[in-house]
Design the sequence.
């Protein structure tokens, strides 16, 4: 089945696609106001980047030339770029005509506005620059911080507004451009980007890349290290350290099947190849949907494919997010709500409805917790956000993911799955390689699916979902029969049954998570010892399970497992796990002191994004302790 689908869904005419994409670049990108870029895209906007850079591990810098083809729409005398702590050495126009440039102020997390003088006829701007060793998008790892501990490693994380710290760029999801790149790295290392990629290391340490599909700056990505490539299927493969590449190939072995599912439902994959790279443990997220190559955390390699919904999620971004992109960060749900919906459709096709119901309920429980913490009337619980100058990295929550997916599920249930699939397929095709605002989506939904049906519009209740806080009254019920069976075992244990008598045979990661999440917060030392002795939870190699278990370890002062807890916190950099554990430890003075001691060891291994979050939780300062304690 997979082979037949692949052959029928291949891109039919590459030339036609490229013509279409070149036209997309001329769509009025000034239509959406983006408060997180200095660029005046309605006046002069970039359309193509030629990047020539050198990666210097000794000085922890990237330096080189960023040459931009521009569209001077209004024949203005200046073009504006976003930068953050970059050293701009020189700027020229065209082939080599020097021009003036200046910085026009700085905002806390937005960096500096780079204003470059141009002429009405200017078509090319060349920026010679170098990065700061503290560039927030760049994570420089020593050999000791990698899996095999022999070579250094570099990776970028550009979302949401961090690309400007490693490339002078117009850093907005509403501005798309194509790019070519030449990257020079140490000869014993390999480089990959969110573009066409090499499969083997070369002797020169010089790599060339092409991204012919237009992308926004937050999808610019680079990784440099000692890794190898192994194919999974005809269009898929994985990059990883030699010692873990075979495990990664097995873990992601269903990737071609996943691609077939999405292509059958929502149209052809338009990015040529889909590969993954398994990054070192410090990577702060589960995955990052960089086009053509997802950056993935090693924490999803569990040995049993139990955490591959994350892969389904990142793959789905090839349609929702990368293909049709949120116009601004206020429209973040356009990326993530659609992607969660697609991810679960993939999982349902492969694993069945009962399995996917577990994923839905876990996501719903997370959403309920978020709403409880922020307050159901909090305007931050609207799908259409009004960030109003707040750092988007701190303001983008799982509201966009879970509430967004629930909204799409409501539409599906009202119009029927067949009709909704047809709508989405047309949506991805019509708006491919374009930006989408919440308002524009609502307009398109009403025009092409609701078509004046007042009763249908009332039943969906679009305004309540998109523009109002909390969960609307028509929120669909979310339940899982498999979790209800787990609830029976939880109740049996609470009533005194021995842990060894519980019926846990065949439980997936998700059933274990439900079990652990719904145990009493306070347990006797005998009870927590019994659970650990029976199920060996403190030695679990599944990151999701052990992170959930450690919440109980901390809350109940089960100090026998604190060494394991410390080992986990030092070796894992994924913010999803770190933040809850450090928050739990910060609840009591004794555990907080323990957390600070662990953090002092662990912090150098964390990405700046994770470190910033934990700094705030623990009140960390330069001296490494709480000054007011």
Sequence:
């Amino acid at each position: 089945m997979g082979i037949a689908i692949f052959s029928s869904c291949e891109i039919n005419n590459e030339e036609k696609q490229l013509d279409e994409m070149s036209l997309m670049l001329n769509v009025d990108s000034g239509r959406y106001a983006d408060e997180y870029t200095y660029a005046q895209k309605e006046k002069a906007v970039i359309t193509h980047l030629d990047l020539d850079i050198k990666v210097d591990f000794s000085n922890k810098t990237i330096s080189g030339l960023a040459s931009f083809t521009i569209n001077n729409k209004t024949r203005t005398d200046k073009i504006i770029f976003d930068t953050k702590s970059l050293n701009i050495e020189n700027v020229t126009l065209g082939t080599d005509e020097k021009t003036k440039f200046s910085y026009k102020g700085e905002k806390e997390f937005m960096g500096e506005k780079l204003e470059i003088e141009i002429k009405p006829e200017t078509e090319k701007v060349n920026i010679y620059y170098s990065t700061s060793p503290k560039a927030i998008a760049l994570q420089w790892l020593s050999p000791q911080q990698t899996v095999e501990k022999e070579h250094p490693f570099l990776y970028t994380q550009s979302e949401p507004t961090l690309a400007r710290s490693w490339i002078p760029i117009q850093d907005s999801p509403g501005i798309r451009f194509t790019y070519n790149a030449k990257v020079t790295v140490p000869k014993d290392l390999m480089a990959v980007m969110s573009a066409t990629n090499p499969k083997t290391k070369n002797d020169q340490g010089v790599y060339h890349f092409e991204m012919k599909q237009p992308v926004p700056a937050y999808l610019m990505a680079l990784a440099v290290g000692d890794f190898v490539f192994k194919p999974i299927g005809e269009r898929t493969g994985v990059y990883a350290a030699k010692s873990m590449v075979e495990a990664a190939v097995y873990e992601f072995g269903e990737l071609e099947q996943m691609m077939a599912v999405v292509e059958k439902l929502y149209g052809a994959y338009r990015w040529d190849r889909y590969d993954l790279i398994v990054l070192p443990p410090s990577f702060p997220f589960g995955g990052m949907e960089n086009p053509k190559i997802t950056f993935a955390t090693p924490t999803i390699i569990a040995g049993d494919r139990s955490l591959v919904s994350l892969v389904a999620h990142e793959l789905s971004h090839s349609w929702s997010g990368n293909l049709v992109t949120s116009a601004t960060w206020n429209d973040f749900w356009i990326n993530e709500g659609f992607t969660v919906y697609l991810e679960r459709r993939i999982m349902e096709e492969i694993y069945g409805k009962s399995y996917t119901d577990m994923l839905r309920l876990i996501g719903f429980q997370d959403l309920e917790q978020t709403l409880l913490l922020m307050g159901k009337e909090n305007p931050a619980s609207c799908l259409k956000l009004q960030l109003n100058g707040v750092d988007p990295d701190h303001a983008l929550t799982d509201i966009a993911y879970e509430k967004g997916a629930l909204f799409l599920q409501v539409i599906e249930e009202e119009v029927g799955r067949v009709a909704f699939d047809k709508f989405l397929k047309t949506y991805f095709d019509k708006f491919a390689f374009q930006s989408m605002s919440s308002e524009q989506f609502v307009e398109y939904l009403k025009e092409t699916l609701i078509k004046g049906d007042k009763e249908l519009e009332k039943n969906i209740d679009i305004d309540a979902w998109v523009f109002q806080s909390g969960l609307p009254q028509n929120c669909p019920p979310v339940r899982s029969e498999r979790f209800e069976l787990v609830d029976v075992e939880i109740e049996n244990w609470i009533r005194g049954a021995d842990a060894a008598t519980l019926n846990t045979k065949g439980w997936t990661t998700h059933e274990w998570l439900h079990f652990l999440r719904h145990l009493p917060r306070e347990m006797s030392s005998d009870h927590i010892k019994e659970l650990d002795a029976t199920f060996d939870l403190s030695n679990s190699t599944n990151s999701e399970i052990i992170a959930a278990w450690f919440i109980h370890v901390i809350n109940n002062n089960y100090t026998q497992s604190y060494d394991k807890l410390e080992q986990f916190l030092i070796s894992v950099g994924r913010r999803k796990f770190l933040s809850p554990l450090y928050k739990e430890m910060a609840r009591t003075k004794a555990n907080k002191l323990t957390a600070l001691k662990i953090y002092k060891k662990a912090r150098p291994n964390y990405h700046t994004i994770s470190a910033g979050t934990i700094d705030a939780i623990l009140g960390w300062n330069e001296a490494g302790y709480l000054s007011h304690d």
User: Anything to note?
Assistant: The domain at 481-618 is CATH 1.25.40.320 (Serine Threonine Protein Phosphatase 5, Tetratricopeptide repeat). The first strand starts at residue 44 and ends at 56. Residues 1-30 have pLDDT under 50 and may be disordered.
